[in-house]
Amino acid sequence: MNKPFKTRITDLYGIRLPIIASGLMWLADPVYVAAVARAGLIGFMTAASFPNVEALRAGIRRCRELSEGKPFGVNIMIRISRDGTDRVTPLIDAVIEEGVKFVETAGNNPEAYIRRLKDAGIIVVHKVPGVMRYVKKAESLGADAVIVIGAEAGGHPGVEPVGTMVAAAAAARAVKIPLIVAGGIGTGEQLVAALALGADGIAMGTRFLVSEEIWAHRQYKERLVAAGEADTTLLLQSMRNTQRALKTGHVAMIQQLEQQQPVNNESILPHIMGTVGRKAYETGDVEKAMLSCGQGVVFADKIEPLAAIVDRIEAEARVAIGRLNTLYRPG
Ligand SMILES: Cc1cc2nc3c(=O)[nH]c(=O)nc-3n(C[C@H](O)[C@H](O)[C@H](O)COP(=O)(O)O)c2cc1C
What we know:
Strand content: 5-15%
Oligomer: single chain
Number of strands: 10
CATH topology of the largest domain: TIM Barrel
CATH class of the largest domain: Alpha Beta
Radius of gyration: 19 Å
Shape: globular
Bound molecules: flavin mononucleotide
Mean pLDDT: 96
Number of domains: 2
CATH architecture of the largest domain: Alpha-Beta Barrel
């Protein structure tokens, strides 16, 4: 395997390029994550997308078969259930018992779970928004690496979103553990820029949504291909659960509900249920859902195999490095 890049992230995961494909609710399934693995990156299957722990276990086995011995991981969202039930521990038990080597945690503080994962020999990367107190916390909890999410990101950029350019540079100064940055990244030039800012690698979500291995309806992908950098919006700030999603009629309706004073969370909750999004992925009826999407959708210009997207990013990175080498002449 030729290894064009050598960073602490390529070393940590044993991958060709310093790129990880972070968890994608409903979409990061065994087929997609195995395609990521075969392309020389590492991807994380989203545990929350499986209906139960048995299905997750089966998913892990399927991903292992399809990955041809290449590394892959599982994304575990740390959340406190409204009814107080611990839904995270059974997922942790499953990944340990199934021999998963890599876990991405996100959401709430993973302190209560990280020790168990580490004791089982699992490499843990924790994902946080670009606010330095969270970045440092991930390091102090013993995460092997940290993913820092900038404001441009699809999904949860944090309650106080900080642009990727600032978040990356500040995080590189704030921690010693390997640093992965994300948020609006979709090109090889941006990969090189992130490395220049002090990161060891990048994470991407949105850019890969148009890959053929993503099971969602073609109409959804065509909508992403047509979308530009201004076609996403932040919402749910009123619930302190800020998300970046594609601008759709459904999202505009939720934003209107958020304008009402006082805000009535109960009126919003049915519209943001995960099943609404899953249905839109199935039918392609994008207007009827809130679908996480980052500003980097502007780079998602074609529906093609994931490996082709990765090839393009690698070629762009090569050109960007060559260009930088012509710009600086010391002495
Ligand atoms: C459609 C979609 C679904 C996502 N679902 C999850 C999820 O279930 N868990 C998670 O930790 N992050 C989730 N994210 C965030 C991504 O893992 C990643 O952090 C983000 O996409 C990076 O920014 P980018 O979209 O600009 O590449 C999701 C993002 C998108 C676009």
